[in-house]
Amino acid sequence: MDAWARGLAVSEALAMLKRLRDVVSDDQRRTASFIEGHVLEAAAAAAAIGEHLTNRRPVALVMDVGAGTTDVGLYRFALPGDGPFKIFPFAHGRGASTYAGNTLDRMLISFIKNEAGVDDSSADGKRLTSALLRDIRDHKATLFAGGFVDIEELDGRRFSREQFLLSDQASSFKRGLKDKITGFIDQVGLDKMKNPDGLHGVITGGGANVSIFRELFSEPFKLHDGDAHFASLDVQPTWLVNHQPDIRPVFPQLAVSVGACSPDLPDEKNPITDASTAPVRVPETTYR
After folding, report:
1. Total tally of structural domains belonging to the chain
2. Cα–Cα distance, 41 to 27 (Å, whole number)
3. Taking the model in full, what pTM does it have?
4. Residue 56 dihedral angles phi and psi, to the nearest 5°
5. How many angstroms separate the Cα of 80 from the Cα of each of 2, 52, 60?
6. Where residue 70 sits, what CATH number does that domain have?
7. Whole-angstrom Cα distance, residue 63 to residue 18?
8. Are residues 176 and 237 both part of a single domain?
9. What is the reported pLDDT for 249?
10. Please, are residues 276 and 194 in contact by the beta-carbon 8 Å criterion?
C-alpha cells in the first residue's frame, strides 16, 4: 500500500497498464461495462453515507479539501433501507474556495521562517525556502498527524502543532476558511435546510485529516437566519474498516474514485431549493 502514500510515478502507471493489456482477454473487453452517466463528486465521496444514516433523509455539507481549492456542496440525501439512494443538490449551495492545501502550505512555511528568524535575502534563507517548498507537504502531514515536525535544515529544530495553530498565520487561515464556507451555506439559509434527520458534515480529499478543516464542524456556522450546527460524519465504508485497515489513513484522498465504483452510489436528481418540499427543476445556470 506504499504507493497510495508516496504517489505513483508515470512510468510505473504505464508499466501497469501495459501488463493489464496483456492479461485482459478479448471476451473480457467485449463484456466490460462502463458508467453511462456522470457521477456527482459529492455522491461518490459520500457513497457510504447510507451505511450510517439508513432510512433517513439528511442534509449533508460535503467538503472536498484539495491542493488548489476546497470544493463545497450542500445536498439532501434520501437513504431508504430497501431501495436505491438518491441525492438532491441544493441549487445555490455549491462553490469553491482557495483556502485549501496550497494556501495552508504557504502559511506553514511563513510560520516556520518567522519563528526561526530567517532572512529571506541571505543565501541561507533562500536555501531554506527552497527546501521548505520542496518538503512542505510531508512536513504538514507529519505536523498534523504526530503533533510536531523537526526541520533538518534548521539543525532539527522542532515546531509543534499547538504553536502553529496559535499563530497569526493559522488564525488568519481559519477565519478566512470559516467565512468562505459560511458564505456558501448562507446562500441556502438555515430555514431551507431544516429537516428532522439533521445536518451533517462530510470531509474528503487530501486535506481531510488536517485538524484545521475537521474543526470547522466543532462550532456552528452563523447564518443570516440562525446558527447551523453540522454533525461531523465519518463515511468510510464498512468493507474498508473490516478488510483494508491499512488504506484508512489515505482513504479520503481516494474517496471519489473508490466511491464511484460503489454499488450503493446515490442517483443524482434535480436540484432543490428547500429540503422540506419536493424537488423542482431548477435551470442549471443557477447553481454553476
Report:
1. 2
2. 31
3. 0.78
4. -130, 165
5. 37, 12, 16
6. 3.30.420.40
7. 35
8. yes
9. 75
10. yes
Strands 221-223 and 226-228 turn out to be antiparallel
Among 198, 199, 210, residue whose Cα is nearest residue 252: 210
Please give the pLDDT value at position 269.
86
Quote the CA–CA distance of 167 and 228 in Å, as a whole number.
Answer: 27
Q: Give the type of residue at 36.
A: E
Mutual orientation of helices 168-186 and 101-116 as an angle, nearest 10°?
160
Residues of the chain with pLDDT under 70: 1-7, 32-38, 243-245, 277-288
Provide the CATH number for the domain around residue 145.
Answer: 3.90.640
Q: Which of 212, 143, 141, 229 is nearest to 178 (CA)?
A: 212
Say which residue the cell 459520500 belongs to: 46
The helix or strand, by DSSP H or E, that contains position 148, with its residue range, turns out to be strand 148-151
CB 236 within 8 A of CB 47: no
Contact (CB, 8 A) for 199 and 221: no
Q: How far is CA 54 from CA 21, 84, 264, in A?
A: 40, 11, 12
Residue matched to cell numbers 457521477: 39
| Rounded CA separation 102/107 (Å) | 9
Domain that holds residue 214: 41-100+171-286
CA 147 – CA 127 distance, rounded (Å): 25
Q: What is the pLDDT of residues 119-133, one digit of tens each?
A: 989 999 999 999 999
Cell of 199: 445536518
Q: Which grid coordinates are listed for 273?
A: 431549493
Amino acid 135: pLDDT:
95
208/249 Cα distance (integer angstroms): 10
Give the DSSP letter of residue 249.
G
Q: How far apart are CA 261 and CA 257, in angstroms?
A: 7
| Cα–Cα distance for residue pair 77/2, rounded to 1 Å | 34
